[in-house]
TrEMBL record:
PROSITE patterns: GLYCOSYL_HYDROL_F3, TAT
Record GO terms (molecular function): beta-N-acetylhexosaminidase activity
Pfam families from the UniProt entry: Glyco_hydro_3, Glyco_hydro_3_C
EC id: 3.2.1.52
Domain Glycoside hydrolase family 3 C-terminal: 431-607
Protein name as annotated: beta-N-acetylhexosaminidase
GO biological process, one term: peptidoglycan turnover
Organism domain of life: Bacteria
Domain Glycoside hydrolase family 3 N-terminal span(s) in chain numbering: 53-392
PANTHER family: BETA-HEXOSAMINIDASE (PTHR30480:SF13), BETA-HEXOSAMINIDASE-RELATED (PTHR30480)
Signal sequence interval, chain numbering: 1-29
Taxonomic source organism: Streptomyces xanthii
């Protein structure tokens, strides 16, 4: 086909996409008739028919790129792009590989501030629309909130999933999703890899934990559905993850291939309900897990590469026809059994639509291209996935309005109303688990001087400072006199001795803990300070299971994260400026006998 006529055909088809009403907001999707869907699909298929094979392959990939700008990144980011991808910039990568999507990371320097993110998004869209296919890109990120958030302040940051599970309010979960989604859309991010739909029934799970809403499948399902509706009411794509369920692993799929030995019946009872709820709520995309579940696939392929799991269960049994995206293909879990050139091909054969972040884009892209040329994959199979992807882009309004503005950023991101909503929601999540002799709430008359000790998990873009500093500042604002001494996650004996000395003359000690284990240095710190006779309040800043190792604490609260909004809320609760309302969404087992519960699901004290 002559180039001019080909461009004209694609431009006309793209215009038809917009004219056919394909940019309808998700909230309107329920009014779409079969006739509307058929008309939309005809327009999208016309776009697909004008694509070259290379353009079709590119539409399937969502890739990382270094830099704050699509065309003019810093030299260090150019060097990183050349080393890992063989291009200098995002625009060059899009031109070479005809990509369908980009994923943003903080470590890739994509998210400095809201205006910069918006400009990067616009640059990416301009590069995409300059291609022959003239199809906008779908820009995504992992913005679960809590401990996983790529876009930091001044954007509004909310409590994470387990904290919301402790709050127990589906209305709060939906509100958090709606506000978070609106802020992402304002900076050009249209697909969020949230919420986490895993049911965390294993306290030793190293990768999910507080990213899950809890351990009760019914409760998790309700919260997942609420978050999906919240995000998608803001006109972005929500993504339930990690199918078929990553909540009962002891291995991290970033580093190895986990096995889950649930029976089919156990999977139906534990893992399935939350994904069913997401589908019923109209979820736009579902992310796969790099895990093996032999009861679901006797061949023991990772779920990402499993036809019985993705096509047999997700597509056919659950009736899901939306976009299926892999978890990152750079994770070891999906690379253990097969080489990098086989993984993307097997994922497509299993039923995947979007191939996320392969370690080598050149290897993965050419593997798919060659699989089609060699007959292992057909263009028709690619067209099925591309149609789903384009349906989503059309639904999100990308064909009609791919660009964003600084004005919209200023009106939306980190507004006073959004920040206040986050504070109110966080207050309802803080969980009081121990309160010996009714020590809490602390008051300025009897506990004026407070020593703050503890761990400082790093999250520079998400905090006003180290967690101990945030806790000390929050106490000071409420009229307490504070001394802050960071002791870390593995305090040395010298640090413990210094903390004991600093406790002298204090009225109370607040210690922030982070994943405490039996015999750990954090446990020794708490015991040593408690032995001084000064009342010790401990605050778990990630997993609520810490309390089982801290029986010497006079009081213990669970914040479920070290993010500012949750730490400030916890301080308001422990000082009586707010009431403790959170209830455990997971059980906490006894340290001396893990077969018995120390605190059941639903436990939480009040004043």
């Amino acid at each position: 086909m002559p180039e001019l006529s080909r461009r004209t055909l694609i431009a006309a088809a793209t215009a038809t996409v917009a004219a056919a009403g394909l940019s309808a907001a998700p909230a309107q999707a329920s009014t779409e008739t079969d006739e509307d869907r058929a008309r939309s699909d005809r327009a999208l298929k016309q776009v697909i028919s004008g694509m070259s094979l290379e353009e079709k392959v590119g539409q399937l990939f969502v890739m990382r790129v270094y830099g704050h700008s699509a065309t003019d990144p810093d030299q260090a980011d150019i060097d990183a792009n050349l080393k890992e991808i063989g291009v200098r910039t995002a625009a060059e990568m899009i031109d070479r590989y005809k990509l369908g999507g980009i994923i943003y990371f903080a470590w890739a320097h994509n998210v400095r501030d809201p205006h910069q993110i918006a400009d990067l998004s616009n640059g990416i869209q301009a590069a995409g629309l300059a291609q022959d296919s003239r199809v906008p890109l779908l820009i995504s990120t992992d913005q679960e909130h809590g401990i996983v958030a790529r876009v930091g302040k001044p954007a509004t940051l909310f409590p994470g999933a387990m904290a919301l599970g402790a709050g127990g309010s589906r209305a709060d979960a939906r509100k958090a999703g709606q506000i978070a989604g609106a802020e992402l859309r304002a900076v050009g991010i249209r697909q969020d890899y949230a919420p986490d739909a895993d049911v965390n029934i294993n306290p030793a799970n190293p990768v999910i934990g507080v990213r899950s809403f809890g351990a009760d499948p019914k409760a998790v399902a309700g919260m997942v559905a609420a978050q999906v509706k919240g995000y998608q009411s803001a006109h972005i794509a929500s993504t339930a993850k990690h199918f078929p369920g990553h909540g009962d692993t002891v291995d991290d799929s970033h580093a190895k291939l986990p096995y889950i030995h649930h029976t089919r019946e156990q999977w139906e009872q534990l893992d399935k309900p939350s994904f069913e709820a997401a589908i019923a709520a109209g979820i736009d995309s579902i992310m796969t897990a790099h895990i093996v579940v032999p009861a679901l696939d006797p061949a023991e392929d990772p779920a990402t590469l499993s036809h019985p799991i993705l096509t047999g269960i997700l597509r056919e049994q659950l009736g899901y026809d939306g976009v299926v995206v892999t978890d990152s293909l750079g994770m070891q879990g999906v690379r253990t059994k097969y080489g990098d050139e086989r993984v993307p091909v097997l994922a497509l054969k299993a039923g995947v639509d979007q191939l996320l972040n392969p370690p080598s884009l050149s290897v993965a892209w050419n593997a798919v291209l060659n699989a089609v040329k060699g007959g292992e994959l057909t263009e028709e199979r690619l067209d099925e996935s591309i149609l789903r992807i384009l349906r989503l882009k059309a639904k999100l309004g990308l064909f009609d309005e791919p660009y964003v503005s600084h004005g919209q950023v200023d009106k939306t991101v980190g507004t006073h109303q959004h920040l206040a909503a986050a504070d109110r929601i966080a207050e309802r999540t803080t969980t009081l688990l121990v309160n010996k002799d009714r020590l809490l709430p602390l008051n300025r008359r009897t506990h004026k001087k407070v020593l703050v000790l503890g761990a400082n998990p790093a999250s520079p873009s998400l905090s006003d400072g180290p967690p101990t500093t945030v806790l000390g500042a929050a106490l000071t604002e409420l009229g307490f006199t504070t001394t802050v001494l960071a002791t870390g996650t593995a305090p040395s004996q010298a640090a413990i001795d210094q903390a004991v000395a600093a406790a002298a003359g204090q009225d109370a000690v607040l210690i922030g803990t982070y994943n405490v284990t039996a015999g750990s240095a954090q446990q020794k710190l708490v015991k040593a300070v408690a032995a001084t006779g000064v009342p010790v309040v401990t605050l778990s800043m990630r997993n609520p299971y810490d309390v089982a190792q801290l029986d010497v604490s006079a009081a213990h609260l669970a914040a479920y994260s070290w993010i500012d909004v949750e730490l400030r809320a916890a301080v308001r609760v422990l000082t009586g400026a707010a009431e403790p309302q959170g209830k455990l969404p997971v059980p906490v087992q006894r340290a001396d006998d893990p077969s018995k519960e120390l605190f059941p699901i639903g436990f939480g004290l009040t004043y």
